[in-house]
Amino acid sequence: MITISAFKWVPDFAQGLVRDLRVRWALEEAGLPYKTRLLEQGDQDKPDYRALQPFGQVPILEEDGLVLFESGAIVLHIGERSETLLPKDVGARARAMQWLIAALNSIEPSIMNVALIDIFYPNEEWAKLRRPAAVEFAQKRLSALSKSLGDKPYLDGDRFSAGDLMMVTVLRILRHTDIVSSEKRLAAYVEHCTARSAFKRALDAQLGDFRIAA
Ligand SMILES: N[C@@H](CCC(=O)N[C@@H](CS)C(=O)NCC(=O)O)C(=O)O
Asked: Quick one: which atom of ligand 1 is closest to the CA of 20?
């Protein structure tokens, strides 16, 4: 049975955003059952966990002696068992991976620049000075993403893939602002991807674990 790591509890701002959600969603899309290894605060710094995840982060995936960290690597690994996530067609499969990496490498950094300011440094003078340029840069990236999406339902056309799963979890990081929601096409894209029953089950499972711990 697959085990994934997650935090037992996190503050409200992070609930529904913690990156194990990506893996739970991928597992739900793939129809693979899993259990969770829930970390108390501080567990991520203990040597036994650091031996599995060098940076002390969630999620990791454990299965039959295989241990993987990095949500992108884990989603791609799960995708090997799901045509929904990684289509069989060679080109479509490569493009699904391309969009997953674009989400992590070309979109997430600019989104995190804004999110980190808002969450951890809202009252710092330097952060107030830095924020407008960080927002402007994120908007530039999002506007390019929106143009590329165009009127298609998904990034590669008519089919949902691991690329959409990752992109949507990245875009949701700015749910506390109107930076994504004011881009109408992206807002609609996030809405219809998160209407998938697999996403709902994944989100319920993460929030359910927090409720139990509260
Ligand atoms: N690049 C990593 C990032 C993982 C990550 O940032 N996880 C956060 C939770 S969403 C975490 O564990 N933070 C605790 C820490 O960094 O100490 C991935 O995608 O798996």
From this structure: 10
Question: For residue 168, how far is the Cα from the chain centroid?
Answer: 7
> Of 1.20.120.80, 1.20.1050.10, 1.10.246.10, 3.40.50.300, which CATH number belongs to 90-196?
1.20.1050.10
Alpha-carbon span 172 to 158, nearest angstrom: 21
- The class (CATH top level) of 2-84+198-213 is alpha beta
**CA 60 to ligand 1 centroid distance, Å:** 10
pLDDT for 43 beyond 90 = yes
User: How far away, in angstroms, is 70 Cα from ligand 1 center?
Assistant: 8
Measuring CA to CA, which residue among 72, 112, 60 is closest to residue 96? Answer: 72
Domain boundaries, the chain: 2-84+198-213, 90-196
User: Tens of pLDDT along 30-42?
Assistant: 999 999 999 999 9
Three-state DSSP at 130 gives: helix
Atom number of ligand 1 nearest to Cα 72: 19
Output the residue whose Cα is nearest ligand 1's atom 5.
Answer: 57
| Ligand 1 centroid from CA 89, angstroms | 32
The model's pTM: 0.97
Atom of ligand 1 nearest to the CA of 17: 10
Predicted confidence band at 187 (pLDDT cuts at 50, 70, 90)? very high
- The whole-number pLDDT of residue 214 equals 86
CB 163 within 8 A of CB 155: yes
